[in-house]
Specification:
With 111 residues, this protein is of the alpha+beta class. Helices cover 30% and strands 21% of the residues. β4, α3 and β5 form a beta-alpha-beta unit.
């Protein structure tokens, strides 16, 4: 097995999905002060030849911080080495509920 095979196909064309996920931990919902990963807002991350596709939601369709969250998410991902393009698909299904919050944080918050 070569190093290239061990690292996976996305290594030659941008960051790994896990690196994108790590970067997205910097993005916080300013109303709740939790990052969008722990909140369960990010549903899927795909990386192909430096193109990053993110499927995510917000805590509600009327979330006043929505534009800020989406803009910041795009900025932090664009800052990763090898990223050519960032596409964020804002989806409403499945609808976000507090059950999507990381279980450890949910328990701490009393949910």
């Amino acid at each position: 097995m070569t190093d290239t095979a061990a690292k996976g196909p996305e290594r030659s064309g941008g960051p790994s999905p896990e690196e994108v996920r790590k970067a997205l931990r910097q993005v916080r919902d300013p109303e709740i002060n939790l990052n969008i990963i722990d909140l369960g807002l990010v549903y899927d991350i795909e990386v192909n030849e430096g193109n990053v596709d993110i499927k995510m939601t917000l805590t509600s369709p009327g979330c006043p911080a929505g534009p800020e969250i989406l803009s910041e998410a795009e900025q932090v991902v664009r800052g990763l080495e090898g990223v050519k393009q960032v596409n964020i698909d804002l989806v409403w299904e499945p609808y976000w509920t507090p059950e999507r919050i990381d279980p450890k944080i949910r328990a701490f918050m009393g949910f």
